[in-house]
Design goal:
Blueprint lengths: L3 H11 L6 H15 L3 E7 L5 H8 L5 E3 L11 E5 L2 E5 L7 H16 L11 E7 L6 H14 L6 E6 L10 E2 L4 E2 L1 H22 L6 E2 L8 H10 L29 H24 L5 H4 L3 H12 L9
Parallel strand pairs: 1-4, 1-5, 5-6, 6-9
Antiparallel strand pairs: 2-3, 3-4, 7-8
């Protein structure tokens, strides 16, 4: 498995002048264990919400299907492995009540799975909502009846409204620059508030829905940042080698924040924390900053090199 970030860190450590050879080798062994970690992300939503187009926009399309059941071709849930990412692509719901019951059971069973450490296997669920459809009954049922009861930590739920370009049947979408005009922005902001309030009223949890367009590659960086901040902190860097490397994907956002720079900051913090854990595991009382100071300054440079296609590199 080609984990560029950890490979680069490991190379820096091997070539460093750090003189405690035993500790160095212990740390390298712990880094090798970090390379074996998996980040499991599930995508769920109603039929036609755009799960495939969303996955293809965010991630490298060179993916390998892995079976969820003995016969993966007939399984409701499909799994795709990209580097250290495992994407769980659930079937669209809302077309057939009988099939929906079957799919709901499979999704619930997947959410209840645990890893070898006894922790829940699924790190995050991204629930997609169709922004072009006023009837969101299926989406709410997915959230309320399937996701919330079984996810464990509701902070791991991301609510994303796709097809924002069609929220007003294509009106007020500027096709020249692939961005919404102010009238559409106002409508979408109201929709976000409506979705947030509905979820809060029926489940008691607080969410921060965002809107985007997978088709027009709008707010993809915002969606990714939202996903990252809902992932377990020490795993946030694991997605980096799996991302779509086309810089055009990441350019068009609402500009309320510098999402691309914040993505890199989150990765830097996550990687530092994971390495700190590796150092402490290798030598009692050790830290990345104290035990292997060569790694600290290297982290930012490595993150910038791996995520350079995002633009807005950190100093």
């Amino acid at each position: 498995m080609d984990n560029k970030i950890l490979n680069n860190i490991e190379n820096e450590l091997r070539n460093s002048s750090f003189d405690k050879v035993e500790n160095k080798e212990n740390i390298i062994r712990h880094i090798e264990q970090l390379k074996k970690q998996k980040l499991n992300v599930m995508f769920a939503g109603a039929t036609g919400v755009g799960k495939s187009s969303t996955i293809n926009a965010i991630f490298n399309m060179e993916i390998a299907k892995v079976g969820y059941h003995v016969d993966p071709e007939t399984a409701a849930i499909q799994k795709y492995e990209i580097d250290n990412m495992v994407l769980w692509d659930t079937p669209g719901l809302g077309d057939n009540p009988e099939k929906d019951k079957k799919y709901a059971i499979e999704i619930a069973n997947a959410l209840k799975q645990k890893d070898e450490n006894g922790e829940l296997l699924i790190d995050e669920v991204v629930v997609l909502i169709d922004g072009s459809n006023r009837d969101m009954k299926t989406a709410y049922e997915v959230i309320e009846n399937i996701i919330v009861p079984y996810i464990g930590d509701t902070k791991r739920i991301v609510i994303a409204i796709n097809q924002c370009d069609m929220a007003l049947k294509g009106r007020y979408w500027n096709y020249d620059i692939s961005q919404p005009d102010q009238q559409l922005v106002s409508f979408l902001n109201e929709k976000v508030i409506s979705v947030r309030n509905r979820i809060s009223e029926t489940t008691g949890i607080v969410t921060n829905p965002i809107y985007y367009s997978a088709l027009h590659h709008y707010n993809i960086s915002k969606l990714l940042l939202t996903m990252i901040t809902s992932m377990p902190e020490t795993k946030r860097f694991l997605f980096t080698d799996s991302l779509n490397k086309n810089p055009e994907i990441w350019k068009r956002n609402d500009e309320l924040e510098d999402y691309n720079n914040k993505i890199q900051e989150e990765v830097k913090g996550s990687l530092s924390k994971a390495l700190d854990g590796a150092a402490k595991g290798a030598a009692a009382g050790a830290t990345v900053g104290g035990l292997i100071p060569v790694i600290g300054p290297t982290v930012g440079a490595v993150v910038g090199a791996v995520l350079g296609f995002l633009g807005g590199l950190m100093e």
